[in-house]
Amino acid sequence: MSDTVHSPWSHLLDQYTAAFLSLNPRHIIDNIPHTATVDGYLRLRLEALGQQKNDWENEWPLARLRYERVNVFARAIDRALAFEPPINLAGLICFAIYITVESTYQRGVALSSVVDLLNRLDHALPRVNYIVPPEAPQLHDQLRSLFHHYASCLVDINKILWSVDPLDTIYEITLTVRCTKDALGHIKERLKAERRELYNPEHNSSQSQSSDGKGWHLDQLDILGRGSFGTVYKAIERTSGQIYALKKIPFGENRESRRRVEAQVQNECKIMRKLPHLHIVNVCLFYEDEECWNIIMDVVAEWNLRDFLDHCCRTNFQETRRLKVMLCWFGCLIDALNFAHRAQVIHNDIKPANILILGDTVYLADFGLSIDSAAMESSRGLEYTPYGTSKYKAPELARGEAPRRRADVFSLGCVFSEMLTVHGGYTLDLFREHRSQREATVPEPFRNTLPAVEAWLSVLRENGNGRAPSVIIDQTLWMIEADPNRRPTAEHVRYELLRSQYRRDLFCNMHE
Ligand SMILES: [Zn+2]
Predict the structure, then answer these.
(1) Where does the chain bind ATP (predicted)?
(2) What is the pTM of this model?
(3) Neighbours of ion ligand 1 (CB under 5 A)
C-alpha cells in the first residue's frame, strides 16, 4: 500500500482521536463503554445510555439520530486502507457521536435539537458507499477533506456544549453546522468530478470482476419485492449490522440468456454509479455467484409508489401525514430525472413500481432498461430493445421511435397525474373509470386517453380541496403533451417548481 495515501489518513485519525480525548471532561471519557467505539453497536449503546439516564422522553429523538452516511463513508475508507477496529475511522466516529450525546445530557441541552443538527450534518455528506480504491490520490484528497470538515464540526459542537451558556448552545451549534454544510457542499462537487473520472466505465470495465463480494458477509432476510428482472431481498451485512437491499438476478437457462442478463446487469450498475443523487438508489457493489448476479443497494424501501398509492386508496386516505409529505415528491423526482438526463441517461421505464419510498423520501430506482446515450453514441455497444411498461409509455415510443429524454418526461407526467389524484383524495379506480369508457382487461395506456386525463386534472384543480398548488397541475398537463417537441424538459419543469412560491412544499428540505 502506498504511503502517500496511507499515512495522511493515519495522521488524520491520530489527530482527531487526540482532539476528542482532550476535549471533554475526564469523567465522561473514562466512563465511555468499550463497545461504543465498535461500529455496529452504537445504536444499542445509545439506547442503553437513554435508559441509564431514565430518559423516556428522549427515546424518540435518539431513535431518530442519523449517522448512516458518515458511518458508511468511514467504513469505505477503513476497508480501502485495511484499518482494523477499534482504531479506525468508523470507531472514531461512533465514539465522537456517543460523547456528543453524553455531553448533551450532562449539560442539560435539548437533545432533540442536537439530534436534528447532527442529522443535518450527516445529510450534508455525499454518499460515499462505493468501493474506494486504496490508490487514488486525488479522490483520497477530497475524501480526507470531507472527513476533516465533518470531524472538526463534531469537535466544535463538543467545545460549544462545554463552553457556552446552555441557553445559547443550540444557536451556536446551528451556526457551526451551517458553515460545515456549506464547506461540504463545495467539496461534494469536486468529489463528483473525481468519481466520474475514476469510475468511468470506459476505463474501468474490470470493476465488476474485482468486486466479487469478498469482504461482504450478507445474510438474506425477507423478500422486499420483485423488480423487472429479479427478486429483491432485505439483507444484513454481518460484520457491520447494516441493512441493504440485495437484488438477485438469475442467469437463465442457456448461454444466450446468461449473456443478455449480464449485459443488463452491467448496464444497470454502470448507469446507477454514474448517478450519485439524493433521490436515486445507489449501487454499492455487484458480483456474480454460482447462480445469479447480485446487486447490493443502499435503499431498503418500505414501499414502492404503486403499492403506497393503492394502500392510500384502500385505507380511505388515512395516511394523511404522508399524503402531505407527498407534495415534495414532485420536486424530488423531477430533480432526480433532471440529474439523470444531464448525465445523458434515459430511464426508459418510469412507473410507480420503480419509485421507492423510505420514510418520507422518494427514490428513483430500477435502471435495468435505461439507456446511457453517451455510451451508445461512442461505442454502439448497447442495442436498444423496445420494451418497458406500456401503460406509462410515451406515444412516440408506441409508434416505434427510439427513446429520447422527453419520453421519460411523459411517463413521469402520467405518474404525477396519479399522485395528484390520490393527493386530491380521489381513488385511482375512479381515475381509471374516468379515463377509459370501455371495460378494459388491461389498463388503458395513458397516451390513448389524454383528453380525459386533461379533463380530470382540471377537475382536480377545481375540486382537489385546493391541496395541490396549481403550478404542479400546470406542469403535469404540459408533461403529458402528445407531441414530444411541445413537452418541457425535466430541467424546465424543475425550474418552474423551484421558482414558484410553493418551492418549500414541492421539494424536500435537502434541496435548500
Ligand atoms: Zn428532495
Answers:
(1) 247
(2) 0.60
(3) 332, 508, 510
